């Protein structure tokens, strides 16, 4: 038990340091680059990244989690999987290089060709480092991974700013990505040297295919279900509406990315050690969910009521139409924070097929809600409501699959354990509703500060008198004692 607590706490700690330091660094560097590089150059990078994201999914094909999960893989197996990723990287890089011309034609932007072809090098490096990176994760070397990424990021940021200052424009942005991926590849590779074979033995893939294939299928269908709403808004409404929706969606995703994305990378390699003890996994995972729920449900209520302040402070008054969809999307945040951890559990107990089935159900719910909301009402507000309804239904089916089908645990116990965190979120929602309805504060910053202080006070009281932990006990249990 102590070992599990230490491993999870240590992993989350180092990933959190790396991620949050990276965020601060990125904000600072982005502010500098925004003054040295014209917005149109950032637009070129964004265009290429849309397509490149899908190529990243193709490059991994579920290999990373499979390597972490399968303890029986030998050095011979890993060498041949590494060889496969090397040659696959070459093929995908060539395909992406060729796709630069039709991509430029599609967007009517000739410079996309040179940008995409240079960025294709990043795709190659990313493929080659799949196995070395997965081996470090498998060994739970989170500290090494985190500080390597942070150090390389700091170094390449200096290069990027220097290149931008010398007038390299969009190529200054590309240079950072190429050098950082190359350096990380070299460092990770020498931590786990692997042999490159000219002829690949496909036998090792038989050990991981049934596992990795469903991870790949889930990632693919999840990619399209997560991006279809933006494609439909751009197609059937207009680019202005798309801008409002995307800003509200991205702002909603920031807490999700910065809370669970420092936890989920740790869960899979650690819980995979207990893949045959489902009761242990169920008990520890439910405890983690309850702890996260005491953060996520009140956070949803808080963001809902500070949406006007956040939108105007961050983006400015011209983005007022983004407030309403942002408020609605904020109501999904509590659910998404909890749901985002389930993938690690599916993978840790060797149930990627069930993981894929859950992803298909989620995709069906999401896509159906998008088409219905846009075809009947045709507004981004309706789309946000559709997203909320679909996400709620998805939460029920996902929890059923995880606890009832996968872990053979009690759904009733899960509902009871999560009811108190949900109650704390409802209490905060009611108090902020009454405050917002009866008190008007003209200054945006003052309003944000006051609502934040009220939220902290209410959360503290709820933790002390509603939760089983108390405030002090909550922070102790957050370490998975």
Concise overview:
With 481 residues, this protein is mostly helical. It contains 20 helices and no strands.
List keywords for this structure.
481 residues, mainly alpha, globular
Q: Your description of this structure?
A:
This protein is mainly alpha-helical. Helix content is 83%, strand content 0%. It has 20 helices and no strands. The chain is globular. The model has no long low-confidence stretch (mean pLDDT 80).
**SSE string:** HHHHHHHHHHHHHHHHHHHH
Radius of gyration: 23 Å
Any low-confidence stretches, pLDDT <50, length ≥5?
A: none
Q: How can the largest sheet be summarized?
A: none
Helix content range: over 70%
What is the molecular shape? globular
Strand portion, in percent? under 5%
Mean pLDDT: 80
Briefly note the structural class of the backbone.
Answer: mainly alpha
Query: Total helix count?
Result: 20
Write down how many β-strands occur, each being a DSSP E stretch of 2 or more residues.
Answer: 0
Q: How far from one another are the termini? A: 8 Å
């Amino acid at each position: 038990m102590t070992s599990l607590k230490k491993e999870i706490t240590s992993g989350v700690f180092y990933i959190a340091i790396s991620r949050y330091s990276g965020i601060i660094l990125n904000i600072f560097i982005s502010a500098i680059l925004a003054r040295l590089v014209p917005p149109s150059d950032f637009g070129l990078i964004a265009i290429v990244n849309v397509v490149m994201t899908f190529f990243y999914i193709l490059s991994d094909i579920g290999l990373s989690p499979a390597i972490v999960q399968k303890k029986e893989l030998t050095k011979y197996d890993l060498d041949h999987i590494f060889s496969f990723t090397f040659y696959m990287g070459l093929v995908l890089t060539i395909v992406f290089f060729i796709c630069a011309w039709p991509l430029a034609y599609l967007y009517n932007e000739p410079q996309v060709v040179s940008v995409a072809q240079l960025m294709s090098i990043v795709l190659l490096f990313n493929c080659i480092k799949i196995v070395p990176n997965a081996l470090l994760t498998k060994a739970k070397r989170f500290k090494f991974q985190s500080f390597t990424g942070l150090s390389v990021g700091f170094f390449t940021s200096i290069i990027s700013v220097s290149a931008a200052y010398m007038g390299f424009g969009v190529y200054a942005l590309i240079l950072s990505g190429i050098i950082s991926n190359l350096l990380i590849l070299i460092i990770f590779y020498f931590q786990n040297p692997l042999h490159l074979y000219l002829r690949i033995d496909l036998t090792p893939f038989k050990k991981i295919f049934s596992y990795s294939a469903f991870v790949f299928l889930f990632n693919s269908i999840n990619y399209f279900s997560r991006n279809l709403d933006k494609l439909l808004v751009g197609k059937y409404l207009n680019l202005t509406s798309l801008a409002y929706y995307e800003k509200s969606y991205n702002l909603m995703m920031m807490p999700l990315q910065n809370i669970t994305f420092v936890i989920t990378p740790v869960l899979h390699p650690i819980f995979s050690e207990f893949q045959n003890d489902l009761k242990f996994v169920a008990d520890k995972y439910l405890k983690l969910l309850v702890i996260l729920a005491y953060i996520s449900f009140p956070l949803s209520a808080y963001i809902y009521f500070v949406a006007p302040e956040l939108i105007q402070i961050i983006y400015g008054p011209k983005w007022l139409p983004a407030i309403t969809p942002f408020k609605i999307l904020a109501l999904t945040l509590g659910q998404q924070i909890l749901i985002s951890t389930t993938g690690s559990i599916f993978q840790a107990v060797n149930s990627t097929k069930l993981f894929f089935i859950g992803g298909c159900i989620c995709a069906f719910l999401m896509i159906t809600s998008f088409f219905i909301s846009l075809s009947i009402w045709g507004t981004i507000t309706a789309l946000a409501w559709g997203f909320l309804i679909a996400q709620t239904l998805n939460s029920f089916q996902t929890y059923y699959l995880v606890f009832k089908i996968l872990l053979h645990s009690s759904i009733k116990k899960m509902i009871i354990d999560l009811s108190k965190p949900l109650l704390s979120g409802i209490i905060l929602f009611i108090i902020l509703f009454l405050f917002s309805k009866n008190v008007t504060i003209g200054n945006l910053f003052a309003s944000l500060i006051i609502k934040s202080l009220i939220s902290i006070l209410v959360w503290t009281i709820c933790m002390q008198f509603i939760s089983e932990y108390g405030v002090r006990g909550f922070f102790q249990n957050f370490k998975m004692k």
